[in-house]
TrEMBL record:
It holds the Pfam family Pyr_redox_2. This is Soluble pyridine nucleotide transhydrogenase. Its cofactor is FAD. Belongs to the class-I pyridine nucleotide-disulfide oxidoreductase family. Its main location: cytoplasm. It comes from Candidatus Neptunichlamydia vexilliferae.
């Protein structure tokens, strides 16, 4: 058993833990990271964000997805994509990322410890190996919990590794299913559903809400649903399941009205919970809230002042991007560096096919708040870049105040949405008005000029109203 001391002990090496550790090191503090995986990256790298986005990119490339869109009127050769092809792409990305993280930790003299951590006291962490033998006792002035989340696995769902899967188990399947049922129309369910639909799998998404990704701007959500329909994905809304039955060769989803759906596999994607089972947080007086997450204040401190928690373990927004900033800010506050509260304005990216990104208000929110607003739209078929790249579906939607012209919300669906959203984000941060996009010159042809087309569309409506 080895004893270690550090100014900051970080539990978890996902985006939140990484950035917290590196920030503390940049402040001249000694740092120890404890991670259950044998290599850095946490669930984000090994079973979450990076694998899912790598899978998406591999599918788009290996299936010539955009080429098929471009040559829609011609026969494009079909490619027999195997699970091995996809896994090869995923492994390449994982290995590259692991190497980058290891170099970062080495450059910043961050000590790496593999094992399962749990609290012995407010300043002391025990680390166990896979056989539950004590390997390290780590003492830290400050502790940062960044253990992330895991798929919610209710006891009445018969999970296995072949038929009934969560998002982690899905990455380990050994063959592509012909028919898939996805239970849950949130981000994870929608992303994976679109991936497999693009591979040619018959996919049906079931959710109790009437629309897929219901918190999206409704028009954008309907645009997504239509786009997914063109690649064969079906959505069944306003439905709650009663029972999941696993058979040797299939899985069945039964509803209260007697309706039954059958598939080769079922992806259960109804929520995630904080990954705190083995932390023994009760040893230091910390408990989870009613939703299963660790409560923190605005500075990411738990009820124990020297123990901080960041990322998915504290609940929403549960994005890798926001988790990174939470980790950085927590480390700065922990060691007295100048800091600020976590921003309330940031973009959201959803990597369905097509992808979606947004920042600011939705149209439904503006209606509820009673704003006088107007809408500017640019459809992808109006954008020359899209014609060149493949005639994919998509649109820009800009919401702005009808009197002051202040930009209130930007929503984009289509290729490069998660990239070009940052132009709108910056404009909104500096309180730009809708005519800002009209008066600027954009590179041509680019997807970004959709801002100008949408701004002109919206501004002309206001001008004609006066």
């Amino acid at each position: 058993m080895e004893e270690l001391y550090a100014d900051l002990v970080v539990i978890g090496s996902g985006p939140a833990g990484q950035k917290g550790a590196i920030q503390a090191a940049k402040l001249g503090k000694s740092v120890v990271i404890i991670e259950k995986y044998p290599t850095p990256g946490g669930s984000c790298l090994h079973s979450g964000t990076i694998p899912s986005k790598s899978l998406r990119e591999a599918i788009l490339n290996l299936t010539d997805f955009h080429k098929k869109s471009y040559y829609a009127k011609q026969e494009v050769p079909a490619y027999d994509i195997s699970i091995n092809d996809l896994n090869y792409c995923l492994n390449q990305v994982t290995e590259e990322q692991v190497g980058q993280f290891q170099k970062q930790f080495e450059r910043n003299e961050i000590k790496w410890v593999q094992g399962l951590a749990h609290f012995e006291g407010p300043n002391q962490i025990a680390v166990l190996d896979e056989n539950h033998h004590l390997t390290h006792m780590v003492t830290g002035e400050k502790i940062l919990i960044a253990t992330g989340s895991k798929p919610r696995n209710p006891k009445n769902v018969p999970f296995d590794k072949e038929r009934v899967l969560d998002s982690t188990r899905l990455l380990s399947i050994d063959q592509l299913p012909k028919k898939m049922i996805v239970l849950g129309g949130g981000i994870i369910g929608s992303e994976y559903a679109s991936f497999f639909a693009a591979l040619g799998t018959e996919v049906i998404v079931v959710d109790k809400k009437e629309q897929i990704l219901p918190y999206l701007d409704k028009e954008i959500g309907m645009h997504l649903q239509n786009a997914l329909g063109t690649i064969g994905l079906k959505f069944l809304g306003n439905r709650e399941f009663e029972e999941i039955t696993r058979h040797p060769d299939r899985v069945e989803l039964r509803f209260s009205d007697g309706m039954v759906l059958k598939g080769d596999v079922l992806l259960y994607a109804l929520g995630r919970v904080a990954n705190v089972d083995h932390l023994h947080i009760e040893n230091v007086g910390i408990s989870v809230d009613s939703k299963g997450y660790i409560p923190v204040n605005a500075l990411f401190q738990t009820i124990v002042p020297n123990i901080y928690a960041v990322g998915d373990v504290i609940g929403g927004p549960s994005l890798a991007s926001t988790s990174m900033e939470q980790g950085r800010l927590a480390a700065r506050h922990a060691f007295g560096a100048e800091t600020h509260h976590f921003p309330t304005f940031y973009p959201i990216g959803i990597y369905t096919i097509p992808e979606i990104s947004s920042c600011g208000y939705t149209e439904e929110q503006l209606k509820k708040l009673g704003f006088r607003y107007e809408v500017g739209r640019a459809y992808y078929y109006e954008i020359s870049k899209n014609t060149i790249a493949g005639n994919d579906p998509g649109m820009f939607k800009i919401l702005f105040h009808a009197d002051t012209l202040e930009i209130l919300g930007i929503h984009i669906i289509g290729r490069e949405a998660t990239e070009v959203i940052h132009i709108g984000q910056v404009a909104m941060t500096f309180n730009a008005k809708i005519d800002y996009f009209i008066d600027q010159v954009f590179n041509y042809p680019t997807y970004a000029e959709g801002y100008r087309i949408a701004a002109l569309n919206g501004f002309n409506k206001v001008k004609h109203r006066k």
